[in-house]
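Researcher: Go.
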Amino acid sequence: MTKIKTQAKIFACTQSTELAKNIAKAYGEDLGNVITSTYSDGEFQPSFEESVRGARVFIIGSTNPGPQNLMELLLMLDAAKRASARHITAVIPYFGWARQDRKDKPRVPIAAKLVAKMLETAGATRIITMDLHADQIQGFFEKPVDHLFASTIFLPYLKSLNLDNLTIASPDMGGSKRAYAYSKALESEVVICYKQRAKANVISHMELIGNVEGKNVVLVDDMVDTAGTLTKAADVMMERGALSVRAICTHPILSGNAYEKIENSKLEELIVTDSIPLSQKSSKIRVLSCADLFADVMHKVHHNKSISSKFIM
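Model: Structure:
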């Protein structure tokens, strides 16, 4: 009996359409046809307008809040499962709700765990994501998780700048592991910012651990939300004698008045990926695409090839 080859099909959630188009182009496949019907009360229904029976389906969608982004991904996973797709891979460039990865005080949810269970229940048989806020989130899944590092995108760019006296900085204690990994790859020094928060997104105090005088500093973080930490850190470092301060952040959430803060800050530039589409333009923000990275990994997954090189920081 002739073995039937599983076909790969790529579909996009609304919030990630542009990125998905670029991923599909890099993969060498056309983006699948999906239409979304919306009721007058806001309820919506995605529909695959082509057969996915027996196929390996890749559904691309970041789950940044609001909740409709996560809900759309869940509905598309469920639709693929009920349409008899053989493999259903949720490609989540930005895994939202990841900051709630533990109980940091009584009577709060662990949202990242809840989202993991919802994705699996909806039908995901594999997860591909990038730069999780906390590595342990991989353990919340019972299905395989391919956790990619955006360092494969950022490191070549940083090396191309040819910065003298380069120093890598972490904007908080939690990001020190990431900063040390970058410093090892770039053979540079490391400094760490110690911050205290009055409440979520509000910094009450920041101290710098290390010397930045005469250095070109690159802050490294997994996401930038209100940009309060990055802009505050840049101010502190320039006051301490840094020559320049840049920042690389994988996921540009950029809520509230983040764009204004960045424009008025002492940051030379903010380098991000297109895991989340920017809501406005900024002269200080440079976007590096993650499309080739995801396309390469998806191709390797479909053809059962090793992707371990994408896990190396």
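Model: The two ends are 44 Å apart (CA to CA).
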